[in-house]
Every structure is written in structure tokens, then in C-alpha cells.
Amino acid sequence: MPVPTEGPWLDEAAGRLIRPYTVSGGRTRPATALDLLTLVRATGTAPPPHLGPEHAQAVDLCRGPLSVAEVAAHLELPVTVTKVLLSDLMACGAITTRPPDSFDNPTDRFLLEAVLDGLRRQL
């Protein structure tokens, strides 16, 4: 389900009129610990109807594996809010998560070189 482009909760100039904390029901911490690189995938189970449209959008995005950061970017929501939504979806069985493949071996030379290159670019 794409992000709506019209309706009472959107303004052409301002964008989304619903505050992020409203989307997460005022919650600021997910029930499940999620990393930015955690991969998320839909299970095929529909989320319960009481969850908001952002939950359904997140499930739709996760037909293929996406990282938490990618889901947040597609939903145009802060990462913390996205983690709360994804935690809700995990609780109802609509998504599963797993660590990214590159972190299966934390001493992987490729991973360590990528981290080193990133640090060098920051300096």
C-alpha cells in the first residue's frame, strides 16, 4: 500500500499532518530491540485491523527483506517510530526479523574493511 498522496491528513505544502508520536500511539520505545540494519520480512499474515495504516504500509513494503532504516525511509517516519510500528507487527506475527547476512560473522574481513573505510571518510 503506497503512502497516501491526498486526503484530510496531508497538506500539499506541509506534507503529513499527523505527528509521528501519534502514529506510534505516543510510545517512544519498541517492545523488541531492533537495530537499523535488522532485516524485516512480511510473513503473509495480515496485521489486525486496529493497527493504523502505517502498519499496513510497512507490511506491504516488507514483501522482500528490507532493513529497519529502509522501512523508515520509505514510510518517511523517524526510525524510533518505525521501530515501534515494526515491534507491533512482530507481536502479531505479521513480520519476522533477522540480523543482516554480513553480520553472521562479526570478524568477516569484508565487514571490517568496510567499517575502516567508513571511519576514514569521516576523518
Automatic annotation (TrEMBL):
One Pfam family this sequence matches: DUF742
Protein name in the entry: DUF742 domain-containing protein
Organism: Streptomyces hebeiensis
